[in-house]
Structures are given as structure tokens and as C-alpha cells.
Amino acid sequence: MAAARDGEGTRRKILGAAEELFAERGFDGTTIREVAERSGLSGPLILFHFQTKEGLYEAVKDDIVRRWQANLDGSPLPKGGAGAFVDVMIEAAFAFYRDNPTMVRIANWGRLAGDDAPWGGEEEIHRWYRTSLVEAQRRKEIRDDISPLAITALISGAVHVWWEFRGHMEEHVRQGSYEPLSDDAYLDQITAVIRRGLAPLGGEKEKEA
Amino acid sequence: MAAARDGEGTRRKILGAAEELFAERGFDGTTIREVAERSGLSGPLILFHFQTKEGLYEAVKDDIVRRWQANLDGSPLPKGGAGAFVDVMIEAAFAFYRDNPTMVRIANWGRLAGDDAPWGGEEEIHRWYRTSLVEAQRRKEIRDDISPLAITALISGAVHVWWEFRGHMEEHVRQGSYEPLSDDAYLDQITAVIRRGLAPLGGEKEKEA
DNA sequence: GTCTATACTTAGATAGAC
DNA sequence: GTCTATCTAAGTATAGAC
């Protein structure tokens, strides 16, 4: 179906196939021929729409960011200071990795290749992190001797490793180095550790398991 | 120098150039011609010694593991239970990433490409982690409601992100999303948070900054 | 807009002289 | 062991008919 003369539909078919392949194999590992096969279209048609392989790659990233931002618009960032902002932050990061695997993988490939530029909209998220954390520190909801950057890195890292080292960690579990652990249990446990580690100093207000 | 007939020296020159390039650009992004240029040798000579590009890649990984294990033999794993095993673990992971950047990068490229197999000697490290953590839990030095896998992932993640998202995070700092933070300060801060987050429940023995 | 045919380039790998 | 010359396959990209 749609075998002829449907520019927009064709573009979307190509973008879909290319996104999968770039996520799986990276830029260098993906060929236009493979994108052509997976989308059921011809190579030249892909280049007609996107000019070059680079152009296709940029279009894929733009498309991902566009969809992601359209999604964000529906659910604005919660105001920091709901009391347990750190919990919100961990949960948000955890859900983001779970729900946007191709975006994360393409970003990972890009970062390894030396592309350190933030993706569209990322700055907004980080300013939200920083502002909310500083605010929580000001209110003495979390200790104020840990920099917001360290908190963000700690949380991002814990989440990143869980989703991106998944297969690798499963190998270690298979070899008996660790007991298996469910996604939910992991989320609960790192939340408990980080929240307690960030509790205000001096106060006896640590309670949760 | 060594322009003719020095098999072992040639092998090492090739391996050195190839390790750099595979770390920078990954397997697909590296060409034998580039390895030839960087090592000052010819392409066919590389294939004479390693048969195929795949063979070269495997030889590079083997060589890295060999050097790394030779290094480990000099300093055996500390026995868990020096009191603050978690601190030791964080420091060890932090130093590992800092001191083995090409190994880490090649492993990252490989993992993205779907290679989840543990590298030689890795199992030993993870069994050390697990055993020491379980032991620390048994002695009530750290809380026992957090699984060793979660602790390992939390620590690995915090360290991984710090070294592997470095350029990316610097972009965020440059954009004003965060204040700069030194390596040492980051290490101190995540150690403080994780150690406190893992302190035994119920006890009032949290003290450090 | 879409395809087939094809040009051009570069990749991995081999042949064979030295 | 090492090189030059070269092969073949595969890659990106273009030409031109429909």
C-alpha cells in the first residue's frame, strides 16, 4: 500500500526504519541499503527525500526530539518542592530511559563518536533539575553540601546503567555473580539509598525502608 | 627504526594504533588503512599478522585484558570488610575508569553493538563486589535490604556517567545549567551520599560530611 | 515521487615480488 | 616480514525513464 506518490507517508516510513537501524547499529554500522530494505523502498528514494546519509541521520534525531517534546507539552514538568523532589527525579529519569530506548541508544552512539551537544529540550530538563534541587536544599529538604551536578550525575548514572548495561548485567547474573532483581525493586532500592543519602544532616528524619 | 623484520615489535605497533582508533571510532568507524597510516605500516602487513579486521579487533581486546590483569596481579583485591568496603569499591571503580579510558570506550562501543559478554577477569571483580557486600551486610556495616546488584549498579553508574558523559556534562555547565565540579569533589560527594544511604537502618552511626 | 541502472569511491582482502 | 599492485564487494550518490 501507498506504493506511489505519498511524500509524507514515505518520509515517515523511511524515518521509522532509519531510527531503528541507527539505534541498533549506529551511524557507521547502518547502510542506506538496509534502510531501503527495511522500509520496503529504494535507496535513491531515500536520498531524494534526505539528500545524504548525514541528512537522514539528522532528520531522525530531529524527529525523535519533536515527538518527545510534543509528549512533554502534554505533561509539564512538576514543580520542584513537592516534598520529595529527589523521588520524582529518579522516577522521571527511570521512566525516560524505559520509554525512549531508541532515543537513548542513538544518543549513546553519538556521544561515543564525540557529539557532546545537548539534544533539543535537554537544557530545560537540566535547569529544572538544578533549580528544584537548589530549592530543596534551601528548604532543608535535602542536605546542601552535595552539588546539584553530583546529584544529577548520581541519579542519571544509576538509571543509565540499569537500562543500558542490562544484557551485560544479565550475563553476570547468569554466571552467578548476583541474584536477579526486578526493575521495580531496583527503582525502589536506589530511591531508598539516594533519598537517605541526601537527607538533611543532623536531623533524625530518615524513616523509609 | 625497526623498518624490517621485527615481528613482535610490529605487532605491538599495530595493536597500539588499532587500540587508539577502535576506542575513538569503534569497530565500524575504523579502517585498516587508518590503522596502517597511524602505525606507519602497510595494510597488507596488518592482515598478515592478524588475518582479518575482526582478528585485529579481538587481538586488541585480548591485549588490553592481558595488560590489565598483569596490573591486577601486582595489587590483589583488598579483602572486603576493612570497615568501609563501600568507600573502597567506589574509589576502585572511579580509578578504574580514570586509568583505563580506551578499555572503557572499547567496551562501550562493544556493548552498544550488542556484545554483552563479560571481559576476561570481570567476573572475578564482580564476585569480589558481591562477596564483600554480603559480608558487610552480615556484619551490619551496611543495611541489608538493598541487593548487592543494586549497590553495584548504583556505584558503577555514578562513576560511569562521570567519566563517559564528561564532554556532555561540560556542555551543560557551559550553558549555565550547573556549577563546575572537580573530579575529587565529585568522588567525595557521591561517596558521602552512598555511604550514608547504605548505613545500617535504625542505628545513629552516620557521622561523615 | 519513485524506480532501475549505473557511476564513483572506498572498504577488506589477496597475489606475488623482495 | 614487508611492500606495491590489484581484486572484489559494498558503500554513497547520481542519471534519467516513468
Automatic annotation (TrEMBL), chains A, B:
Domain of life of the source: Bacteria
Gene3D superfamilies per record: Tetracycline Repressor, domain 2
GO molecular function annotation: DNA-binding transcription factor activity; transcription cis-regulatory region binding
HTH tetR-type domain location: 8-68
Pfam family membership, one: TetR_C_21
SUPFAM superfamilies, per database record: Homeodomain-like (SSF46689), Tetracyclin repressor-like, C-terminal domain (SSF48498)
Keywords from the UniProt entry: DNA-binding, Transcription, Transcription regulation
Record feature DNA-binding region, as residue ranges: 31-50
InterPro entries in the cross-refs: Homeodomain-like_sf, HTH-type_TetR-like_transc_reg, HTH_TetR, Sco4008_C, Tet_transcr_reg_TetR-rel_C_sf
Annotated PANTHER family: HTH-TYPE TRANSCRIPTIONAL REGULATOR BETI (PTHR30055:SF234), HTH-TYPE TRANSCRIPTIONAL REGULATOR RUTR (PTHR30055)
Name by which UniProt lists this protein: TetR/AcrR family transcriptional regulator
Organism annotation: Aminithiophilus ramosus
